[in-house]
Predict the structure.
Amino acid sequence: MKIVYIIDTLSTKGGAERIISEKMDYIATHYGYDVSIITCYQFPESMPNCYILSDKVKQINLCFPIHQQYKYHYPKRLWVKWSYHRQLSKQLNNTINSINPDIIIGVGYALADYVCQIKSRAAKIIESHEARIFTKTFQLYNKQSFLSDIYFNLYRNKYLHIIEKNADVVVTLTKDDAMNWRKAKRVETIPNFSIMPVSKLCDINAKRVIAVGRLSWQKGYDKLLNIWKIVSTTHPDWRLDIFGEGNQEIELRKFIKENGLSSVSIHPFTNNISQEYAESSICVLTSRFEGFSLVLLEALRHGIPCITFDCPYGPKELVDNEKCGFVIKNGNIHLFADKLKYLMNHPEVRKRFSIAATSKAQYYHVDTIMNQWKHLFESLT
């Protein structure tokens, strides 16, 4: 069976890029499928892959200079963008025709319209790594102008209609997100997995809380710091360690300094995050929205009790409330702080949650998840 993945780039250090790399390696190695990946905007000389690919996976870089459209001002930029769209569509069609795959998988929504309109005998799958409402939610929080809202929603609705009309299958990460794709031809829910080696479970007695993820508006670190501002007054002997990089780092460090949060540290991404999980006893997630949250799954695999907002989508499917952690009403900072203090004060509860966490993580074993993908591929061919 020939399978082709299409993605914008593999040079970005993100959850989707990592899971796709691991998934392709598994398919090529365990199932013996002929697997290729086409990157549209990646220049390998200056933008190397962030995650190592198996030698059995073929990578094709189209090196399309999409960023050059931003050299122009409107309205010329619109014409250039339309021209680029035509050129990239032609390149993708020619590349796909030369491979002649059985299945084409578009990763995320960035290139979904291109993938859905490729002229090929292959079945087309759109693999969602963010909830369908992702762009709408982002728009609401960023308070765009009335006219831009109208344009944005018209464009978005047309874009989603192309997916619903042309994709043979839309694969979501959560059941909640699947409910939003009622108009699609076929919808399947297949969650992510984690193959991160776990050599040591968490230290339940460690007075350390961990948060992991990009330092971006989506991840809600501004809310986390406000929660910690409440918690640290009664628990000065506890630490909060944040691991991530992003465009909000300066703003977050400023808040930490101005509010005297000396028990908070921000660290860059590390290749040994497993060790950091092992030295923590609580994991927190304050995102405004998620596609799935690999961070929570990684924490559960290390036996870490988790506290998360019930944001759309994913956290409540991963964390069983009051069994392996707490799922807090979205945005309720004070309740989040209360539950965090409760876990800090009760090591016996952390121990009980830890045992339940490792048990829950077994539902997301790589073999279990990849077997679902195998069944999907076989049903389409």
Q: What stands out?
A: The chain has 14 helices and 13 strands. The radius of gyration is 22 Å. The first strand starts at residue 2 and ends at 7.
